[in-house]
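Hi all, long-time lurker, first post. I run a small reading group and we've been trying to get comfortable going from sequence to structure in the token notation. Rather than ask abstract questions, I figured I'd post a concrete chain and ask someone more experienced to write out its structure so we can walk through it together at our next meeting. Sequence below, copied exactly:
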Amino acid sequence: MSGRPIILGIVGDSAAGKTTITRGIAQILGPENVTIICTDDYHRYDRKQRAELGITALHPDCNYLDIIQQHLSLLRTGQPILKPIYNHKTGTFDPPEYIKPQRFVIVEGLLGFSTRGMRDNYDVKVYLAPPEPLRHRWKVKRDTAKRGYSEDQVRAELEKREPDSESYIRPQRRHADVVVSFYPPIDDGSSDAQLNVRLVLRPTIPHPDFLGIIERSSTNHRSAVRLDLDRDMGKPVDVLEVDGHATHEQVKDLQGVLCSEHPNAWEMCNNFEIGKVSGTTGETLQSHPLAISQLLVTYHMLKAAKGL
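-- Answer (accepted) --
Happy to help. Here is the structure in token form:
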């Protein structure tokens, strides 16, 4: 494939699952073909300064949005950037990194859709919207294990950030082509491998003909994979749902369609490296809802590349 880089934007609140879904997409496309940019590196203040100023990392004033927009424009035309690096462990900044875009660029972070100039640079826009209790659980797990916080500190930070989440993060949902919401089938502490997914498909980009696939499926298939009409933020949308208990047999038709744009479609549909999550004891588990979500986004990136 030739032409400019294809740019995917993935936006969601802290610990919404951005890195997990990005990892699988990069695996499908080939890590050597993908450049990953995190807009959270563009914080204006370090952790100590934010505490002194009483501002959270979610507030637009705490981030260099103009530089993000400028860098996205450069990446879209294939030009390199000198990207800042925010160190989440130390709360300070590391030396910047010279980045040259590969064929595909994935831009993930908190505020990636917050300006029109940013949004105009993306070929595909995805918003992650897990239920807040689930996101809180993920954030506590991540920040205590990887960033040195206590559980009480994480919960206090979540409470402090809530007004900015409500004002600046969640409204970006309206700009997404696809909204991805993982959720437990019931509030029973299900593992991440058992989570269902609800995929809101906006008509801003053409989606595959899922209705035809589902109508050809048996009743048993329909119990695990469903397509409905709904409204999201007041606008009509299609909604594809895949249950956590879905088997490979039940999702293989969906996978076949979503892999059809990949040059190595057969290998891709049988790539069990995608849809991987960690179990409660650290074991690796397979999540078909996650795999379908990663494949759907990749499908749209490959379609965009073919359209150049």
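A couple of things your group might point at:
Residues 177-308 form one domain.
The chain has a mean pLDDT of 91.
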